[in-house]
Specification:
The protein is globular. It has helices at about 50-65, 75-90, 90-100, 105-130, 165-175, 190-200, 215-225, 240-250, 275-285, 300-315, 335-355, 385-390, 405-415, 430-435, 470-475; strands at about 15-20, 20-25, 30-35, 40-45, 135, 140-150, 155, 180-185, 210, 230-235, 255-260, 265, 295-300, 355-360, 375-380, 395-400, 415-420, 420-425, 440-445, 460, 465, 480-485. The protein is of the alpha/beta class. Strands 14-15-16-13-12-18-19 form a seven-stranded mixed beta sheet, with helices on both faces. It contains 15 helices and 22 strands. The protein folds into two domains: about 15-260 and about 470-480, Aldehyde Dehydrogenase, Chain A, domain 1 (3-Layer(aba) Sandwich), CATH 3.40.605.10; about 265-445, 3-Layer(aba) Sandwich (Aldehyde Dehydrogenase, Chain A, domain 2), CATH 3.40.309.10. Helix 3 (about 90-100) packs antiparallel against helix 6 (about 190-200) and helix 9 crosses helix 10. Strand 7 (about 155), helix 5 (about 165-175) and strand 8 (about 180-185) form a beta-alpha-beta unit. Bound molecules: nicotinamide-adenine-dinucleotide (NAD). Nicotinamide-adenine-dinucleotide binds near residues 158, 216, 240 and 391.
Length: about 500
């Protein structure tokens, strides 16, 4: 049986962090598995409600007493740049820990996820050093200035699919705008974020960045419904997002919700065939197919459909699936056994709906007990098929065909989600028309997975509420205050003097 080498021994990282000091949770034990072998590699001690209270209190104390919200821009920029450096200096260990619990491919973690995690801090350092304000003068002699103040104590909830890249966007933004934070990683993939928070705590004042660990229904629910939390930034599934927003809503706590997707990748006959093909494979099979941005519904114009699908299947069959630590690997294991079984259950759905299985659709037994799935593709009978409507969140592509631009637009938008869309065509009027009509937060034209951090990122419909990105984060992580002052001595109002 294949037994891949375990990337790192995680025992020393199994703690939460409150007020800069490690805390041992008081809740139950959660086993952590290495997806490439199915072996238990560690145990996470869950933080119960009192542990969460302690972390929130530490953050509040730091917010009120440490001078963190008032820190000068110059000092804050220095600290954020130091955060970037410490991530890059510890890239090997962070990458191994990320790989250990997620099964993400090491070359992708080191080549994309970790550089991005580090860059998130540089980006917000640059952003705040350019920040400017508003001032209004009126003819009655008053001047009003608008000040942005840190929102306070923020709860940051991360998913398991790309913990470092996704959580750092939240951490960097929260800290850049002067907030104190409590982060909760996914209970499946805590190690890389435990290490990250402990590294950042070498640089930050005590209590500014705290960490709690545990299941969503226990640790997460107590955190997001906490009366002392001022903002909730959540990335995860749509069903969970509804619960989180309802709990936060009871406290009137503003939220951003980065949720699921079922993105259409529309390929016209007028597209550059090879580039569209290459990108279609990347957008569904990178990050082991487990990404919110996946181009999971591939809509191909009828005249090139057969050629495109044949070329896709030929490349799909050559994808190197295996040991996430190996440099040649392109697709690693699914993050958990339960999730692997869920993905495979869509093969039965496809069968029941009359879709055609084109390749894959089963576990790779030769790779042992790891959660490996053969990259899978189906031609769907119609866009109403379950595989075209549900977020499968795995290496599973669903093909559809269309005859006209209007048909492609209508099919692409016929989903409860609206995170991203991909459009491939060298015909300008086509890309202009289609990108205008997509009901999604992002439209990528002739390019896949290209993130511009200054621009808003987030979804329409059930893919989210609010946005992440430069201005969007500034708005979310701050409160606006208007201060109005007369510029000349006030003329008495004579009120009560008659
Ligand atoms: P999930 O919703 O199961 O969990 C996300 C996080 O929420 C975890 O930390 C979990 O412990 C926590 N949680 C669960 N229940 C909670 C509750 N009641 N209160 C507070 N916290 C709770 O999601 P997942 O399975 O970890 O991640 C996969 C999902 O995330 C997919 O749907 C994917 O599309 C989505 N995602 C979206 C984006 C985006 O930017 N839009 C990015 C990555 C992943």
């Amino acid at each position: 049986m294949t037994q891949f080498q375990i990337p790192i021994t995680p025992a020393e990282y199994a703690t939460g962090l409150s007020n800069g000091a490690a805390i041992k949770g008081t809740g139950s034990e959660i086993p952590i598995f290495y997806p490439a072998t199915g072996q238990q590699v560690g145990t996470l001690i869950e933080d119960g409600p009192q542990d969460v209270d302690r972390a929130v209190a530490a953050a509040r104390q730091a917010f009120n007493m440490s001078g963190w919200p008032e820190l000068s821009v110059e000092k804050r920029v220095e600290l954020l740049e130091a955060c970037e450096r410490i991530i890059l200096e510890n890239i090997d260990e962070l990458a191994r820990l990320e790989c250990l619990a997620t099964g993400l491919v090491m070359t992708q973690i080191k080549g994309f996820h970790l550089p991005r995690a580090a860059y998130n801090f540089r980006f917000f350092a640059q952003y705040i050093s350019q920040a400017c304000g508003e001032r209004y003068d009126n003819t009655d002699g008053y001047m009003s200035t608008v000040k942005r103040e840190p929102a306070g104590v923020v709860a940051l909830i991360a998913p398991w699919n790309a913990p470092l890249a996704l959580a750092t966007m939240k951490i960097a933004a929260a800290l850049a705008f002067g907030n104190c934070a409590v982060l909760k990683p996914s209970e499946q993939t805590p190690y890389s974020l435990i290490k990250l928070v402990s590294l950042l705590n070498e640089l930050l004042p005590e209590g500014v960045l705290n960490l709690v660990n545990g299941r969503g229904a226990v640790t997460g629910a107590h955190l997001v419904g906490h009366a002392a939390i001022d903002r909730v930034s959540f990335t995860g599934g749509t069903v969970t997002g509804r619960e989180v927003m309802a709990a936060a809503g009871r406290q009137l706590t503003p939220c951003t919700m980065e949720l699921g997707g079922k993105s259409a990748n529309i390929i016209f006959a007028s597209a550059d065939f090879d580039k569209a093909l290459d990108s279609a494979l990347l957008s569904i099979f990178s990050t082991n197919g487990q990404q919110c941005l996946a181009g999971s519904r591939i809509l191909v114009e009828e005249t090139i459909f057969d050629n495109f699908v044949d070329a896709f299947l030929a490349r799909m069959s050559r994808l190197k699936v295996g040991d996430p630590m190996a440099v040649e690997t392109e697709v690693g294991p699914i993050a958990s056994k339960t999730h692997m079984e869920r993905i495979l259950s869509f093969v039965d759905h496809a069968d029941q709906d009359g879709d055609e299985l084109l390749g894959g659709g089963h576990r790779i037994e030769e790779l042992g007990e790891g959660y490996f799935i053969k990259p899978t593709a189906v031609t769907a009978k119609s866009n109403a098929s379950t595989v075209c409507q549900a977020e499968i969140f795995g290496p599973f592509a669903s093909f559809l065909t269309f005859k006209t631009e209007e048909e492609a637009i209508s099919m692409a938008n016929d989903t409860e989600f609206g995170l991203v869309s991909y459009v491939w065509s060298d015909h300008l009027p086509t890309v202009m028309n289609v990108s205008e009509k997509m009901r999604s937060g992002i439209v990528w034209v002739n390019t896949p997975l290209t993130r511009e951090l200054r621009a808003p990122f987030g979804g329409y419909k059930n893919s989210g509420v609010g946005r992440e990105g430069g201005h969007s984060c500034e708005e979310f992580y701050t409160e606006e205050k208007t201060i109005t002052i007369p510029k000349t001595p006030l003329t008495p109002f004579q009120f009560g003097m008659k």
